[in-house]
Amino acid sequence: MLKDDEIKHQKNLQDTLVQILSLLKKQELVSELVRKQEMPRHDLVQNLIEKQHVNELKKRLQQLHPADVAFILESLPLDQRQMVWDLVKVEHYGAILLEVSDAVRESLIEEMEHEELLDAAEHLDSDEIADLVPDLPKDVVFELLTSLDSRNRAKVQSALSFPEGTVGALMEFEMITVRDDITLATVIRYLQRRGEIPAQTDQLFVVDRENNFKGLLPLRSLLIHDPDLPVTEMMLNEPVFFYTDGSAREAVQAFERYDLLSAPVINAHHQLVGCLTVDAVMDFINDTSQKERLNQVGLSEEEDLFASVWKSAKNRWMWLAINLLTAFVASRVIGVFENTIQQIVALATLMPIVAGIGGNTGNQTMTLIIRGLALQQINTNNFKYLFFKELAIAFLNGLLWGSVIGVVAYALYDKISIGVVMTAAMVLNLLLAALAGVLIPLILHSTGRDPAMGSSVMLTAVTDSMGFFIFLGLATIFLL
Asked: Angle at the Cα of 445 (from 440 to 449), degrees rounded to 5?
């Protein structure tokens, strides 16, 4: 049922995008026609027509969740994006800026006035301001921090002090704490006086007078137990909690393992400083997976789909240059065996098969290793087993599919020697691909780099160059 609702929502969102695009196009066409017409009160007529479309656009946008507006903005070219952004209410700016991608956020902030940025931040919580601060101009950040009261300013500075990838950088400050020396009835009265509770609240955080973390009080306990019972009797004394300097990846795994909605975050003195919620965890998962996909294909940073040609081209230069270099190396390998290829023309048609299958095998292995590193499932105790397992799989696949393609090569060219060379080259290149698929991410990880960073480009370089070398080398030895 939930999946059906999600599909329905996505369809409605796509329909809304189409409607907004249609309104933008109509406005552009009608404005152009009116401009070309000579009529009394020309400017007044043009303003009235434009206002009609603008009001309808505003109405559509006001009905959308900030995340949906972010989707709309990411789906529009730069000029239309700015036009729609100008129609969004200022009080919604901050929430939408947090939802859009990094690249789109940068393009919007570049066009915003100083006061607009300050207004956008004023409608955000402390932890949300901390998420937005790295993208703001320095003068805006200074004025923004100065305008906050001492309590919120301390929270923002605290959140900014934690390195990226730690629990402290993900935690939120908005949570409900209760003392350990009161009854459930007192807690209920306190919640009623508050009038509202933070989103994703499924439990209350129990602390003592010094703010030391004591345990968790599930909300359901307030509903099903005697109100006169003390909090200490109903609270969970050994809950899952995280330290501010703990790994965000480990926290994500714990949320998945224990089906958590929220969890306390404490400092080295065991004092409660914040909470981690499932929505922050989901955002981290999405951001991390997107970065890994981009890194794997050699994109240095997230790219705005509608960015200028020049900016998009620069983002792709570094790894394209590396790819060009590796391709040149592969061409030189082929050049070394030019005489062999001239004598046996069939080799030219068979070479890409060996390199292509090797690349696919290497990518399969590398994807599993990167995933294992991310989940911290690979360590010194099981590395040897995984290493030889991948080599054994590569040998088995190489022998099986190498034999198949060897038979095909023999059938095509009526030379059993070509079939044998093809089979041997396939086995050796798949073994090499598996070796590279294991070692490349492990070496990157051991040096403190993202194991997905450019790994696909490096793997292609190895499987292409060495695949050609192995195949043509064997052909030179056994066929000439």
From this structure: 105
Strands 177-179, 242-243: pairing is unpaired
pLDDT tens, residue by residue, 449-477? 878 777 777 888 888 888 888 888 888 88
Q: How is residue 319 written in tokens?
A: 């790894």
Cβ-based neighbour number of residue 235 at 10 Å: 20
Could you tell me which residues are beta bridge partners of residue 205?
177, 216
Radius of gyration, alpha carbons of the chain: 30
Q: Are 238 and 157 in contact (CB under 8 A)?
A: no
Comparing C-alpha atoms, which of 345, 191, 203 is closest to residue 263? 203
Residue 88 DSSP code: S
Other beta carbons less than 10 A from residue 464's beta carbon = 25
DSSP-assigned letter for residue 298: T
Q: In CATH, what is the architecture of 177-288?
A: Roll (3.10)
Output the DSSP codes for 186-229. HHHHHHHHH----TT--EEEEE-TT-BEEEEEEHHHHHHS-TTS
The span from the CA of 429 to the CA of 441, in Å, is 19
Q: pLDDT digit string (tens) for 225-244?
A: 999 999 999 999 889 999 99
Q: What percent of the chain has pLDDT over 70?
A: 88
DSSP 8-class letter at 163: P
Split at pLDDT 50, 70, 90, the class of 40 is low
CATH 2.130.10.10 fits 316-479, yes or no: no
| Domain locations in the chain as residue ranges | 2-166, 177-288, 316-479
pTM metric for this prediction: 0.70
Using a 10 angstrom Cβ sphere, with 0-12 exposed, 13-18 middle and 19 or more buried, the burial of residue 302 is middle
Reported CATH class of domain 2-166: mainly alpha
Torsional sign, CA 453, 459, 464, 468: positive
Cβ atoms within 10 Å of 363's Cβ, excluding its own: 18
Q: Which two tokens stand for residue 302?
A: 């997230």
